[in-house]
Amino acid sequence: MRRYHMACIYPSDSQEPELLYPYILDNIKSFLEGETDWIANAANAAATIGFLLHDLNWVGFYLKRDNVLKLGPFWGKPAVTTIQIGNGVCGTSAETGKTINVKDVHQFPGHIACDLFSNSELVIPLFKGGQLLGVLDIDSPEIGRFNEVDQKYLEEIALYLAETIQWPQ
């Protein structure tokens, strides 16, 4: 039996990463349990992160298709549908295969602005079996929103999603 327990409250009154991030991952795991549809799983993962983390305005996936990144499931406002590999924060992360934590997107050369209220961005590449699947993109209206602790935990969540979701080939 699938268990649903996403709550409208945080696991504590504080935003302590040691409590919050495991709670987010547990919620994601409960949504993925027994579900094989990649769109449903990616959509619930984006919504869970967006809903439970503070000061975010966009969370979503850009997936590698025909050597470009195509918009996948997301939480937030409408977004750019195609990003060239190597362009913007997402394309650069895909090209380098490395997480990019941008404190102020207005200082990032070639930043692609989807939402004028976004000021910082964390992009994590997704790999499965050594192949680039795409990226997990997380935006915030707060400059410097993502620190090393956020990056560490969100990379763990991204790794879980990359390995667990049955992405299309």
UniProtKB/TrEMBL annotation:
Residue span(s) of domain GAF: 56-164
Organism annotation: Fusibacter ferrireducens
Annotated InterPro entries: FRMsr_CS, GAF, GAF-like_dom_sf, Phosphatase_reg/MetRdx
UniProt protein name: GAF domain-containing protein
Source species, domain of life: Bacteria
Protein family: Belongs to the free Met sulfoxide reductase family.
Pfam families: GAF
